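Field log, afternoon session.

UNIT: design team B
ACTIVITY: writing a sequence onto a fixed backbone
BACKBONE:
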């Protein structure tokens, strides 16, 4: 709820504004009770009020729910409205419903719905529809259509930029990630690769971990500690889970030098800052490197070099988000979560392949994107 200040929350409480119910709760030190913003009970003194993201947070701090406004019931009402909104959008993916239409359909004001949806889902309703269309695109891709044809069919202009932009929109919500993947079902596979053992894990929405290591047990333990509350299933054998198999194949094609890009949907939630860094990393071309400072400058946060480095270190999908392409300004390799030797080999190989392509006079023409 980062952007909302306590001052604006207090204004909502002072106005008993129903529109903010479900967005936060306020607790009163003197009574030990917490309420939704619109509670009709006597107004507390500002000095005695603390704000919390939700009832759980207030209860963790020792407050109990108000019997009069039942702040817990707002939370479940919110969940119902969001479920209704999602169902509506799922059913109207081609119509691109206006926010006002959607709001009417679920019985909530447009501005309240926009805020609530964004808070619960991590994306706006509009971005949600874009991601649904991206899902359809992925289905086309799995069915064997070429990328340009599939982007066209899915309603985008024929541009892989649109594909990447859309697939970056939606995934595990930040909330689900914060809760250790609670309620999230993860499948994973391991495979041999030129850089050791490879583990690829995915939710129903996309790849949530790509890790490299010396043995499967270490990789599995790392996955477990990243998503401790999720349910996890290891995929073995040669049948079923076609989507996961396709994503593993895409990562291996990159590691074997067959492909320069790994075009898989991602499901990685982070802080807004981390996500900006991760998106910036995906814009570093194959065969090139950037310094941490350059990445910080590219996201208009030139002084946040340390935060950039730590976002790189928090990357959960190696290779797909190419954090190996970030090095120290001095030319030193910097860190790498999956081992410096691997980073060194990845960069050497990418540079080698990129250099060969430039030398070859009849290399594939790279058309400027429109
Ligand atoms: Zn109350």
């Amino acid at each position: 709820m980062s952007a909302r200040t306590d001052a604006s929350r207090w204004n909502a409480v002072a106005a008993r504004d129903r529109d903010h119910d479900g967005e936060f709760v306020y607790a009163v030190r003197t009574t030990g009770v917490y309420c939704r913003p619109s509670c009709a009970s006597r107004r507390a003194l500002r000095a005695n009020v603390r704000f919390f993201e939700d009832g759980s947070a207030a209860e963790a701090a020792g407050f109990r729910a108000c019997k009069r406004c039942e702040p817990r019931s707002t939370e479940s009402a919110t969940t119902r409205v969001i479920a209704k909104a999602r169902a509506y959008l799922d059913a109207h993916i081609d119509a691109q419903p206006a926010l006002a239409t959607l709001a009417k359909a679920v019985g909530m004001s447009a501005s309240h719905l926009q805020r609530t949806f964004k808070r619960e889902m991590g994306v706006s309703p509009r971005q949600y529809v874009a991601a649904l269309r991206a899902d359809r695109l992925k289905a086309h891709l799995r069915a064997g259509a070429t990328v340009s044809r599939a982007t066209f069919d899915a309603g985008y202009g024929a541009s892989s930029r649109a594909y990447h932009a859309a697939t970056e929109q939606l995934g595990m919500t930040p909330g689900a990630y914060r809760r250790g993947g609670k309620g999230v079902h993860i499948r994973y596979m391991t495979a041999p690769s030129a850089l050791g053992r490879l583990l690829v894990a995915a939710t129903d929405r996309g790849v949530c971990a790509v890790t490299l290591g010396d043995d499967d047990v270490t990789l599995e333990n790392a996955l477990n500690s990243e998503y401790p509350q999720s349910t996890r299933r290891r995929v073995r054998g040669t049948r079923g889970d076609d989507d996961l198999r396709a994503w593993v194949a895409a990562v291996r094609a990159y590691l074997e030098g067959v492909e320069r890009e790994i075009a898989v949907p991602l499901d990685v939630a982070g802080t807004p800052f981390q996500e900006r860094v991760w998106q910036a990393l995906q814009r570093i071309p194959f065969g090139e490197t950037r310094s941490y400072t350059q990445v910080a400058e590219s996201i208009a946060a030139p002084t946040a070099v340390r935060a950039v480095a730590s976002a790189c270190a928090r990357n959960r999908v190696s290779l797909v988000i190419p954090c190996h392409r970030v090095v120290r300004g001095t030319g030193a390799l910097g860190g790498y979560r999956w081992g410096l030797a691997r980073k060194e080999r990845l960069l050497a190989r990418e540079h080698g392949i990129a250099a060969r392509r430039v030398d070859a006079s009849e290399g594939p023409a790279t058309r400027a994107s429109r």
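LOG NOTE: Residues 148 and 159 are 7 Å apart (CA to CA).
NEXT ACTIVITY: expression trials, pending approval
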